[in-house]
Amino acid sequence: MTAYEEFAGREILPPQEGPDPVNVPMIRHWAEAMGDRNPIYLDEDAARATGRPGIVAPASMIQAWTMRGYAPAPDGGGTGGASGAEELYALLEKDGYTSVVATDSEFEFHRELVVGDRVSVREVVESISPEKSTALGAGRFVTTVRTYTDQDGEVVAVQRWRLLWFRPKASPSSEQAPKASRPRPVINRDNAFWFEAARAHRLVIQRCAGCGTLRHPPGPCCPHCGSFEWDAAEASGRGQVYSFVVNHHPRHPAFDYPLIVAVVELEEGTRLVTDLVGVAPGEVEIGMPVVLDWLDADPGLSLPVFRPQPGVAS
Amino acid sequence: MNGRTYEEVAVGEELPALPIPLTRTLIVATAIASRDYQDVHHDPGLAAERGSKDIFMNILTTNGLVDRYVTEWAGPAAVVTAIKIRLGVPNYPGDTMTLTGTVTAKHDDDRRVEIAVRGENGLGAHVTGTVAVRLPAKDVR
């Protein structure tokens, strides 16, 4: 059994009471920020008119009542201070999983919270996944069950909660360590429009003004009808992997490796050579649906890249 | 403020779409209103160090917006009994997320209605999930 597997079933956060009881000022801040104008959160009469005893808190706000708030403690969960949680966070950090994002939250609400309620939460680990390769970097999914109770110990809500702890990849647009510049594209009168559009994060396709045929890479003359007249059409940014290679060697200091170089076939029918990002080399497949993203390689150069269509991989 | 009764709602009904402009102020204000002070929700430099291109919306806010979206449609008498969401691509500043929803089930025993919810931004699906609300009966209104 690995150190991670041993956490399954373990309470990492003993019951902890939120610092403030359910109160109108915090509800007001929440409702204002969310743009939520439901009157039952702020207007006593409106709440009574719906059969409630008085003002209730938004259901989704329950987690906020037990958040740790602003504290100079290590990053991690929203709540903290418990030894089990700290032990888990230390283990994750030791293995390089220094960043965290929430990926799933499944709430079941047993009753609405009213002003004056005191909410506590306890958290038990359900499972910790083996290391998975994700768009953000390699990481582990930590699934816990958070049980919210009131001042009488009655359960008011249960939340299944999943965090991805991961090793961050180098930022695509980081302004930190100055990196070598990418090799410059050769820009001429035929293709300048395409790179100018890319600088504005627009992916365009050259279109023959004579017969309407799309073509890429750009050129002076339509190979279909011979016309020299052309304009540019906006691409939808959706496509699929037509072919790809994974470049391991030789390396150029401007690139991150392994570097996936692909031919992407756009929905419009033309193909372009581009990089695939947000996917591990072993997960790329021919025909895989991809969507456009932008690489701001350096101040003078923006290039289209593609990433897997969201919702397809986990 | 009008609301929906259980009887008025039919499986397959679509909720009106709600576009939400993702301003930097919205992302920061909602993080703070949910007492979430993690740097990735307000500090662009630290967010970049952690591998993100910019600050991004926290999940508590996604829950709050999905809650607001469904209860705006259902009305003040509706009681939220479940919110189950999965996050996809991040909500970055400058984008717009459009929420859409469809009624997928009705449970007569407790007048509970389930709504499948989806929030799309320029990068794809930010959130997919289900919200369940208990609606008033016709005569209670």
TrEMBL record, chain A:
<dbReference type="Pfam" id="PF01796">
    <property type="entry name" value="OB_ChsH2_C"/>
</dbReference>
<feature type="domain" description="ChsH2 rubredoxin-like zinc ribbon">
    <location>
        <begin position="195"/>
        <end position="230"/>
    </location>
</feature>
<dbReference type="InterPro" id="IPR002878">
    <property type="entry name" value="ChsH2_C"/>
</dbReference>
<feature type="domain" description="ChsH2 C-terminal OB-fold">
    <location>
        <begin position="234"/>
        <end position="294"/>
    </location>
</feature>
<dbReference type="InterPro" id="IPR012340">
    <property type="entry name" value="NA-bd_OB-fold"/>
</dbReference>
<dbReference type="InterPro" id="IPR052513">
    <property type="entry name" value="Thioester_dehydratase-like"/>
</dbReference>
<feature type="domain" description="FAS1-like dehydratase">
    <location>
        <begin position="16"/>
        <end position="157"/>
    </location>
</feature>
<dbReference type="Pfam" id="PF13452">
    <property type="entry name" value="FAS1_DH_region"/>
</dbReference>
<protein>
    <recommendedName>
        <fullName>DNA-binding protein</fullName>
    </recommendedName>
</protein>
<dbReference type="Pfam" id="PF12172">
    <property type="entry name" value="zf-ChsH2"/>
</dbReference>
<dbReference type="InterPro" id="IPR022002">
    <property type="entry name" value="ChsH2_Znr"/>
</dbReference>
<dbReference type="InterPro" id="IPR039569">
    <property type="entry name" value="FAS1-like_DH_region"/>
</dbReference>
<feature type="region of interest" description="Disordered">
    <location>
        <begin position="1"/>
        <end position="20"/>
    </location>
</feature>
<dbReference type="InterPro" id="IPR029069">
    <property type="entry name" value="HotDog_dom_sf"/>
</dbReference>
UniProtKB/TrEMBL annotation, chain B:
<protein>
    <recommendedName>
        <fullName>MaoC-like domain-containing protein</fullName>
    </recommendedName>
</protein>
<dbReference type="InterPro" id="IPR002539">
    <property type="entry name" value="MaoC-like_dom"/>
</dbReference>
<comment type="similarity">
    <text>Belongs to the enoyl-CoA hydratase/isomerase family.</text>
</comment>
<dbReference type="InterPro" id="IPR029069">
    <property type="entry name" value="HotDog_dom_sf"/>
</dbReference>
<feature type="domain" description="MaoC-like">
    <location>
        <begin position="11"/>
        <end position="117"/>
    </location>
</feature>
<dbReference type="Pfam" id="PF01575">
    <property type="entry name" value="MaoC_dehydratas"/>
</dbReference>
